[in-house]
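LOG
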Amino acid sequence: MYNYKIIPTRKKTFQLLQNSLADRDNSKSLEVLEIGIGGGANLEYYPDNCNLTVVDKNKFFEPYFKKNAKNYPHINYKRTVIQCAENMTEIQDNSMDIVVTSYFQCSCYDPQAVVKEILRVLKPGGKYVCMEHVGFPKNTIGLYIQKMVYPIWFLYSNGCTPHRDIAKVIKKAGFSDVICKEYDFGHWMTYIVKPHLIALATK
């Protein structure tokens, strides 16, 4: 149900990427890295002619992802790297055209370290695409509630931290250009994870 509800957000996120690639030569393949890809919910929105590398800290997702990936012939799956995103030693410097994370930064160990690694592996001019639920603005009742329920939420939601300011992390990381769009996800979403972020950052 959750994946179904956020389809419009995925479309908006990747439309932002497509707009930034308007002058691209489609005959040249794009090197794409997705971190924490899960079952591959983003695959149908990828640009044409992609070479895909996947990074995750465990292999549990692979059977679901590989089955789904067969439905998208415009993507050439290259390999899976089993590593933490905070230290992607098997991914070379300046090797990726695009890095994608979606609903990952809320539960990773160190968002600053992850974004630092993303900057390292992106080619000059490469794009970081981020879709995430984030904290309410400072000094709001929403942020207070997120912090109050965090200890229990963390235990029952696979390590999720609902009050992170991911936009701030991306803006301070050293990208040459950052587009961040924050919005309230709507009445159906659990209040704790209502604020959402779409970001496109260029190295």
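LOG (cont.) second protein
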Amino acid sequence: MVSNKKNRWRCLPGQPLTELDKKVLYWQNKGKLVPTREMVKTPEQIEGIRIAGKLNTGCLDAVAAMIKPGISTQEIDNVCMKYCEENHCHPSCLNYEGFPKSVCTSVNEVVCHGIPKKTDILEVGDIVNVDMTLDYNGYYGDASRMFIIGGETTPEKEQLVRVTKECLEIGAEAAKPYGFLGDIGHAIQKHAEKYHYGVVRDLCGHGVGLAMHEEPEVLHYGRKGTGMMLVPGMVFTIEPMINMGTWQVFIDEDDPYGWEVISGDEKPSAQWEHTFLMTENGVEVLSY
């Protein structure tokens, strides 16, 4: 059991206990880790996040319409910047802790946080993750997609991209109201390891909505029934990073910004990410 001495869930003073209060307090009293009330978004906040999520999806749609062999990853960044300008959004990655671009473009063995460059020219058979976060009126959407450049690649890379998407879908299916974050990680790890893939442990999903990164951390490995309890109104990403080989990673020494994460054995890596809202009936996708 997880110690929960700080009484994370606080009921509203002077208000009768709601059904949500009763369920959360039950598990809190059992010693389980529960969210703070601040992690549960209000209906007004959810509506703002939903709009940001739709815009974020639209940005990735714009990338999907132009990505092809022969373009540079910088051209992807240009499309994302133009989309944000036209839709009165802000690309959240731009200048975030020194990140120099508006979007992450991670090619082949780059696990995540790949920096767009004029010199990175996409070739047939490359696999590329495009990870976009934007904010609109103070609300955030976050998602990433994999692209197979030219529509064909090696059977090994194709399988990696497919299985990684399955990991996201299986993780989402495991996310249940009043279940636990460990349920998500367990389901993803179990599926990935069937294929002898490595589940990256140094990076994770996260809460999102009022900031680009919020509590809780969403690990993509773990045990059922562990971690924080999931409560309706929570908004978070699931974004498994799956390596063809080892789960370990390192920072590219040639990256002057210290951002690009590479698979430990430099074998290909894949990632898919959606933003989810937890409801009483399971998750709703807000950005994909």
